[in-house]
Every structure is written in structure tokens, then in C-alpha cells.
Design goal:
Distance between the termini: 34 Å
CATH topology of the largest domain: Butyryl-CoA Dehydrogenase, subunit A, domain 3
Number of strands: 4
Order of helices and strands: HHHHHHEEEEHHHHH
Shape: flat
Largest sheet: 4 strands, antiparallel
Strand content: 5-15%
Number of helices: 11
Number of domains: 2
Helix content: 55-70%
CATH class of the largest domain: Mainly Alpha
Length: 293
Amino acid sequence: MEKEPRLVGNRGFKIGAAGGALGVFIGLIQLVAGSHVGSLNGNNEGTLAPGLLTLLLSAFAIYCSYRASRETSPDLERRIGWVIGIAIPAGIGFMTTGLLWSIPGVVLLAASGSLIREIIREIGEKELKTILSIPIWKRSLLCAGFLLIIFPAVLGSFIEGSELASLEQGGDEYFVRPPDRVLKEEADGTTSSSGVTGVLIIHIMMVFGAIVALITGNLGARTLSISTSLLVLVSLLFFFFFLPNIMFIEGARFSQFEALHFSALSGGWFMSVSGTLLILVPELVIKGTEEPG
């Protein structure tokens, strides 16, 4: 029996495999010497968990690269799914691994771009016309929304006011910063911080949702774009409702904290919500582009 032709070639797979292999190498560095490289390792206090996470992300990216290169299904969203499987580890790695991830992350994003180009080249002319007919204003909103969501999750530790939340009490300041930090700056200048798993999950969901919404929205996969935008919105609302519990971890004692709840949110939270709405509202209100007959 004649084998079905592959719908994408090997170039994207090779780039993705190279990025994944570099990621495996970085993961091994984290396991062996992660505590000695400081900010290069994202200032992670341990070595085992970050190293294993990097190895897992890298292996998953290699697997998705391979499956994308072997895909024979004509279903567009299925093929996009494999590309997303490469892009998501790249985005999460930027949050959890620090500067060590710079090269593997960029290579994996390049692999995603290469595979998307190959998919577009191989799909039918009718489907391609549908994708290309997405208006420029909608693509602009998708890109703007992506940047607004991703900004706090990636740069919230470096630019004041762009973190998800901050609050002052008795001269002490409290900040919620990526990837998982609740930071306390006391009036005398001393600082302390705690890692909070919930904060890490929220930031990962923001990055995941933003990347998927950007890719699927630009390729006309409306259902996936709406679903992942809702995922980001739900994670931001979850953060809002559980903010008191997150802040209490650093030992703050807020009187009537519920009344201060909304004012504790920083510019980063509002940026991310605005970005999500920029992506979500047009997808919900405006029906997908009709395929040309």
C-alpha cells in the first residue's frame, strides 16, 4: 500500500530537533551547576526541579517537531497543534530558565515559524485564500493583544509597575513578579521572597494562551483562538480572587484586605486583561471569514 504523503517537510523538524537538543544540554547544566550561574538560571534557588522541567520541555519540543514533520492529516487545527507544541516550551522556557534559554528558545520559535510556512505552502489553495483574507486590522489586534499579555509575564521583574500586583503596608512593599515570586521589600531596604506555585501556573497559562491565540488567530483557527484567550482571562480572574491568599504568604497582615483587593493590582494585570480582550472580543463578535466559493 502506498504511504500517504507528508504535509510538511523535514526542515522545520531539523530546526526543532536542534533547539530541543540545545535545551537538553541547558537542562543538564541546570542539574549540575544551576545554583552557581545565578541570573543565567533565572535565579532559581534549586537545581533539580528547574533542570527536570527544562529537560521535559525540550523533549516535548523534539517530539512535536518529529510528529509535525510526519503529519499526513489534512486537518489544519491538528497540524497547528504540533506547531504549538514546539512554541509553548519555547515560551515557558523564557520564563523559567532565564538567559540560559536564549538560544534554545529562539531556535524553537524559528522551528515553529518554519513549520507554519511549510504547512501554508502545502495546504489547499482554497484554505490558503481563507487564511490570507483575514483583515490586517484583525492581525494587528492579535499582535497587540499578544504583546500586552506577554509583557508582564516576561518583563514584570524588570520594569516597575508592570508586575501583576503590588501593595504597600507600613513602609513595606509587596510585589507579585514572574515567574513565581512574591517579593517583600522592607522599609529598611532588606528584601525577601517566596516561590509560589500558583503564581508560576498563572504566568505559564498567560504565556501559553498568548502564543496559541496569536498563532491560531493568524491562521484562522477561530475555535482554538477563542479557547486559549478564555484560558488567559480565567487565569487572570483566578489571580484576582486569590490575591489575598497569595499576599499572605509573605506574612503581611492587611486590615480589611478585601477592600484593598482591586487597588493592589498593578499595571501588568490590566495590560494582560486588555490584551486578552483585544484578541477575544473580535473573535466572539465578528464571525470568521467566509471561505471563498
